[in-house]
Write a structure and sequence with these properties.
The chain has 376 residues and is mainly alpha-helical. The protein folds into 4 domains: 117 residues, Alpha Horseshoe (Serine Threonine Protein Phosphatase 5, Tetratricopeptide repeat); 68 residues; 73 residues, no CATH class; 100 residues. The chain contains 17 helices and no strands. Helix 7 runs antiparallel to helix 8. The radius of gyration is 24 Å and the shape is globular. About 8% of the residues have low confidence. InterPro entries: TPR-like_helical_dom_sf (IPR011990).
């Protein structure tokens, strides 16, 4: 067995043992703790009446107290599913908001505790690193957004950086309040920078050069940053009804960023801003690939999407080939997000294309072989 593979297996084994040890410690503590009795009544209540949403909520709270985070998350989801969806009373409306907020607590715990075990083991290949670091970044953005003042910036940067690392951590707590806070954040950011470019990416290409000559990078950098981040937030919208809008928005953002890379290639990224860094663009393109896949799943007759998927995957792979590797000062999750996972996703997309072609009866043997090679 090659030495690098052997070392990786050893690292993963050490990490697994660390997590098992932590879990075992938790189980042992429960044997002498009266808390395990908590939740039995609630569990019985859900068995007697599976539609009793209050029982599901109480069970979720009990499981969370026992540090049984996955059962807690599932119970919260059942509580939300069994709540009426129409003609809610004011009390039920308030309960839905509270349940949606509390349902995120097990997610936070699931991310934080395994991360401590992984860190202690020294394993740098676990996806827990990605989830933990992405969640922390997003949570900081939410904190700034909720308490934002004219003097404090950075909220939009954190809100977009987190999901660019790992989009699964994107969530809205109390959706209406979240959206209201986000809109307020956007208003304050625009007031702070007074950008003329925030109307959309197309304006950047038309106005940025002259604005740069007149105002300099101190003005243009936040203009471009705010524009790209405001539009890229749409990439994380999960509803299928807006897939085409998401696809268009992320595509235009990438077009502008590539245009800027070419136009200002002699200007250091430290001057142009974070959104001009290759890793940010790569992360956004990785999400763009996923949006194309979702769109193709809704309409498999659209052959242009297949061509676009292949082209974008190739661009992503070329970006990785030209990159000398992640800096030494970044966390393990950063390397996984913007290098390993991007490479894996690009190959998976190419494999998917060939597999789909084979299923359609086109050069079946050749496409199946290519799909297998890319998957491996």
């Amino acid at each position: 067995m090659p030495e690098d593979i052997a070392n990786r297996l050893k690292e993963e084994g050490d990490a697994l043992n660390s997590i098992r040890l932590w879990s075992s410690t938790q189980r042992q503590s429960k044997l002498t703790d009266p808390m395990p009795s908590c939740g039995r009544t609630e569990a019985l209540a859900t068995e007697l009446d599976p539609t009793y949403y209050k029982a599901w909520a109480r069970l979720a709270i009990a499981k969370n107290a026992l540090q049984e985070y996955l059962p807690s998350a599932l119970a919260w989801q059942r509580a939300l599913d069994t709540l009426p969806t129409e003609n809610l009373t004011p009390m039920q409306g308030q309960q839905r908001q509270e349940y949606q907020s509390d349902s995120k607590k097990p997610l936070t715990a699931c991310i934080e505790r395994p991360a401590m075990a992984i860190e202690a083991s020294g394993n740098t290949r676990s996806s827990v690193w990605i989830l933990h670091e992405a969640y922390e970044e997003f949570a900081e953005g939410v904190r700034i957004m909720k308490g934002v003042t004219v003097d404090e910036g950075g909220g939009l940067q954190h809100l977009s950086n987190g999901p660019v690392r790992e989009d699964r951590i994107f969530h809205l707590e109390k959706e209406s309040l979240w959206i209201s806070a986000y809109n307020r954040l956007g208003t304050l950011e625009r007031e702070r920078h007074n950008p003329r470019l925030a109307a959309g990416p197309d304006y950047v290409k038309r106005e940025a050069p002259s604005r740069l000559a007149e105002k300099g990078w101190e003005v243009v950098r936040p203009d471009v940053d705010l524009t790209i981040r405001s539009v890229s937030i749409l990439v994380f919208e999960p509803r299928p009804t807006v897939v085409s809008k998401v696809l268009d928005s992320s595509g235009r953002c990438l077009e502008v960023l590539e245009w800027g890379q070419d136009l200002w290639k002699e200007v250091p990224t430290s001057v142009r801003g974070e959104v001009s860094e290759e890793t940010f663009i790569r992360g956004l393109r990785n999400l763009y690939l996923e949006s194309i896949l979702v769109s193709f799943g809704l309409d498999r007759r659209d052959t242009m999407l297949v061509e676009k998927l292949t082209a974008e995957a190739d661009i992503l792979l070329r970006s990785l080939e030209a990159d000398s590797g992640a800096r030494d000062d970044v966390d393990p999750g950063f390397k996984l997000s913007f290098y390993d996972y991007c490479r894996g996703n690009a190959y998976a997309c190419k494999a998917f294309v060939h597999s789909d072609l084979a299923k359609r009866g086109l050069s079946v043997e050749e496409n199946n072989q290519l799909a297998g090679e890319y998957y491996l």
